[in-house]
Amino acid sequence: MQKNNPAISIIIPCYNHGAYLMEAIDSVLASTLQDFEIIVVDDGSDEVKTINILSEIDSSRTRVIHQENRGLSAARNAGISLSSGKYILCLDADDMITPTLLEKSFHVLENCPEAGVVATPPQHFGDQNYIWRPIPFSFYQLLRENLLHASCLFRRDIWKAVGGYDENMRTGCEDWEFWIRVAKAGWKFARIDEPLFLYRKDGQSMVSETQKRRHEIFSYIQRKHPDLYAPSKQIAMFKQWFLDTLKAGEYVILLTGLLRCTLPYRLRAAMFDLCQMVCRMGGKKGSI
Question: What CATH fold (topology level) applies to the domain 8-227?
């Protein structure tokens, strides 16, 4: 372990994902930036293979802590509370990072004090192989869908300020709700436009199960943040998003957003017609 406080703390929760855990750890160890610590949080694994792998981890660079099974949010919070890095990156035990993710993300946050989080489009691999490029970040869109993955580098101070991950969310999307609170606190989200995070697509993964519960999870988030989902707030945020997106010339994104929004039909139709007119006049910049 590092003698001085490291620049970055990597938190890897693990619950019976021992088959991929060493791949996750090795991907971090191969980073071009070496000023980090790795903390693996065993969230009560009961699989023999995983238990054996956890016992064999090299303790010179990786610290393993054990707790009863309390869920992903609790495991992340436990790891972060025991870490000492200025920046935090949470990595699931079945995912990986590319060698330059830490270095490039670190430099963004070091040189952009108003940014609290830096994201990168994930390269999906496994059952499916593709690069997921979400629409440009906006708080308005974040309230409707998770525009980020869980393994974005963020400032440790943010985690403290917003209260960590919600440990009541044990069915997934805890990172989405965490990002909402970060945005609500006023932090900016920076972006690196190259796929530096490797996300494993596995039909049996927790994320696959989460998709089935999305309505239930979204309802929970709405109940937790009634101020953000109040009609007056939504209209104000939509107007700002509309103007910002129109100004940026992201017409395709604008049209798609209008199709998805929940504004009254006549208002939505009028804005849709306006967007189509602007799109014909100014081109079709933007992609989904």
Answer: Spore Coat Polysaccharide Biosynthesis Protein SpsA; Chain A (3.90.550)
Is 154 in a helix, a strand, or coil? strand
Closest CA to 30 of 20, 38, 41, 42: 38
Q: From CA 286, how far away is CA 278, in angstroms rounded?
A: 13
93 and 19 Cβ atoms separated by less than 8 Å? no
pLDDT per residue as tens digits for the range 171-182: 889 999 999 999
* Least-confidence region, from 17-31, 140-154, 255-269: 255-269
How far apart CA 200 and CA 123 sit, in angstroms, is 8
Q: Which two tokens stand for residue 59?
A: 């303790």
Q: How far apart are CA 183 and CA 221, in angstroms?
A: 14
Q: What is the DSSP letter of 86?
A: S
Which token pair is 24?
């996750």
**Is 28 in a helix, a strand, or coil?**
helix
Burial class (CB in 10 A: 0-12, 13-18, 19+), 48: exposed
Residue 5, SS3 per DSSP: coil
- Sorted by where each begins, the domain ranges of the chain are 8-227, 230-282
User: Residues 226, 227, 231, 236: is their CA dihedral positive or negative?
Assistant: negative
Say what the pTM is.
0.83
